[in-house]
Write a structure and sequence with these properties.
Helix 1 packs across helix 3, helix 3 runs antiparallel to helix 5 and helix 4 runs antiparallel to helix 5. It is built from 5 helices and no strands. The chain has a single domain, classed as MetI-like (MetI-like fold, Orthogonal Bundle). About 5% of the residues are buried. With about 140 residues, it is an all-alpha fold. The mean pLDDT is about 90.
Length: about 140
């Protein structure tokens, strides 16, 4: 629709915007669920003490919600990394597209696509380990 108004954007910013918009909706729902999961008594106790609303949010509600949200957000981040290969459909030259390009030049697809799969696995595995360490850091009972 934007080109009909005279505004054209290249493929990479369009892809970043599209994935960002898509996954920000997921993240918003995850945070909403994490906040709604807290007992109502937390709100009531904080407001009864006369704390300002900003202090209630930043000092009481969000730190507790983050503990339950971190594992799910980690999964979303890893999923977003994997979904970045879809950007090749709008001509963004990314990891999978580079593997396909190398395969088409040499007419050998097994080696470059295996290497691409290994890269995706390695980065996803490292990301999962980082998320696991964040989970341990924000675990209940600290």
């Amino acid at each position: 629709m934007l080109p009909t108004w005279g505004l054209t954007i290249s493929a990479l910013p369009t892809g970043i915007f599209g994935l960002g918009l898509f996954y920000s909706a997921y993240a918003a729902e995850i945070f909403r669920a994490g906040i709604e999961d807290l007992p109502a008594g937390q709100w009531e106790a904080a407001l009864t003490l006369g704390l300002p609303v900003r202090r209630v949010w930043l000092g009481i509600i969000l730190p507790q919600a983050i503990r339950s949200v971190v594992p799910i957000l980690g999964n979303v981040i890893i999923s977003m990394f994997k979904q970045s290969s879809l950007l090749s459909t709008i001509t963004v030259f990314e990891l999978l597209a580079a593997g396909l390009n190398i395969g088409s030049v040499n007419y050998r697809y097994v080696e470059p696509l295996t290497l691409v799969g290994a890269f995706y696995f390695a980065i996803s595995f490292l990301s999962a380990r980082i998320v696991r360490s964040l989970e341990a850091k924000h675990a209940f009972g600290d």
